Amino acid sequence: MEFNLFLPQMRLSFAQLVDRARAAETAGFVGCTGMDHLAPPMADDQPMYEAMVTTTWVAAHTERLRLGSLVLCDAFRHPAVLARQVVSIDHASGGRFDLGIGWGSVPTEFVTFGTGSTVPRERVARLRETLTVMRSLWSGETIDFDGEFFELRGARQMPVPLGRIPIVIGGTGPKTLALVRDFADWWNVHVGEIGKVPELRSQVGSAGVSIQQMVALVPHRGDREAIERVARRRFGTSPVVGNAAELVDHYGRLDDQGIGRVYTWFCDFAPPETLLEFGETVIAPLTRST
Considering the entire predicted model, what is its pTM? Predict the structure, then answer.
């Protein structure tokens, strides 16, 4: 199992984001992933940085972490612009960029900012065109494209990616599953729908399975009641709360269910000391067990 730190770029300065990313790298996390919104979800009054700029900044201050967003919203960028951005970060980071992309989890953003249709069918169809256009542009060949949403004539982009850029797509609807099958390396499943994985697994081809999950680590000699109280106040019943041994057992069970990657979202906003202890007491034992 891979551990990827989910680190939303809100309420934190760039220096704090870098400190956390570097700690995650030291702790054994495989990647560090932000979010992509035009307004912070359920926190409109909080400061937030743009996704691609933040990813570029963190890439420049780390050495090994894979980087990206869970997930970029297709409607926010023209596919030719996104294709160029992705390849630029790919080259700048030495091939450490993962393209997480979806058709939008907060439809009200489309209304507020006028970025596109709120109709699910149209948004899924647009995402398929985006992925098709990007894959064509990444070939380095000159292309023409006639779609419902985009038209390109004699379009070409250089340089090409350093290698295969992993694509992450989430969802369990039939049209989304088809996108995963046709384009994705990782299929991200909502934690509440893990039970559907055995039934749907055959529909997504060779894509690995990932989930995003909130966690509250109870450190050695930590106040469990206080930590759980804060986690529940901030995030309700969603977080998994446990000490190192309990979390090792928890992630071991997920591994047994075929979950290959966890995007770990820490309820305490992932200070370096939490990440380092998680790495030493949870990631390391699980790594040794394999």
Answer: 0.96
